[in-house]
Design a protein that fits this description.
With 235 residues, this protein is mainly alpha-helical. Helix content is 59%, strand content 6%.
């Protein structure tokens, strides 16, 4: 397996966590996004979105982190990370879909609340991306981030509203369920815990969501989370 990953990226955490939970052998190929290693023509030939992670396995290329989770479960079903009951499978699918839909929100909040402390992006950086990166959506995002104008303010305000809504949904669900994947820990928990952990990193106010915080603590205490996220250092 070849897997380009970013040490600080929730989407890459998500994939590494699934790999560790399943005890699979895999090879990490670290990309330094600050050095634009995701902008090269060779990487964009593999992943046309020019983002991480990418999984390459048996000649197949999968470029969305949640799709990678489902692929790994299909190819390596043991130990199982999906519930046996059809109702729980539907619920797990819902939460995985929600995690994917909220990824842009996580990205906006990460840049505003965490990255801005140490990552400055200037016009020359945006110009480089515009010239070399095929992902126009990413270029526009970084342009808004660098300018800190009305467009960026709108992105952040929209992200704050969307995040409050989904956190309320999660808190309500976890009030009656131990896990997002059904009766046991599984793919939906893997998909969501990386988002929750990024919010903790960004010092996002989570005191109003005690059930979510309790669930986050239980997941992050798992040995696989330590190997995949907390103590991971790219080789």
């Amino acid at each position: 397996m070849g897997l380009p990953v970013q040490a600080l990226g929730p989407c890459s955490w998500r994939v590494r966590l699934a790999l560790e939970e399943k005890g699979l052998d895999w090879t990490s190929h670290h990309l330094n996004l600050a050095l634009n290693e995701h902008v090269t023509a060779s990487y964009q030939a593999i992943n046309p979105n020019g983002v991480v992670p990418t999984l390459v396995h048996d000649g197949q290329v999968i470029i969305e982190s949640n799709d990678i989770l489902l692929y790994l479960e299909e190819k390596f079903p043991e130990p199982a990370l999906v519930p046996s009951a059809a109702r729980d499978q539907d619920g797990m699918g819902h939460w995985i879909e929600r995690a994917g839909a909220i990824q842009g929100t996580i990205k906006s909040l990460s840049h505003e609340l965490l990255f801005r402390r140490f990552r400055k992006v200037g016009p020359e950086d945006v110009a480089f991306l515009a010239e070399h990166h095929s992902n126009r959506e990413l270029v526009e995002f970084m342009r808004d981030y660098s300018e800190e104008g009305a467009a960026w303010t709108s992105r952040v305000e929209r992200a704050q509203l969307e995040m409050r809504n989904v956190l309320s949904e999660l808190e309500s669900f976890l009030a009656d369920h131990a896990w997002l994947s059904g009766e046991t820990y599984g793919l939906a928990d893997i998909s969501w815990v990386v988002n929750a952990h990024r919010l903790v990193q960004a010092q996002y106010a989570l005191d109003a969501y005690p059930k979510l915080l309790s669930w986050h603590e239980r997941v992050t205490q798992r040995p696989a989370f330590d190997r995949a996220v907390l103590s991971y250092q790219p080789g």
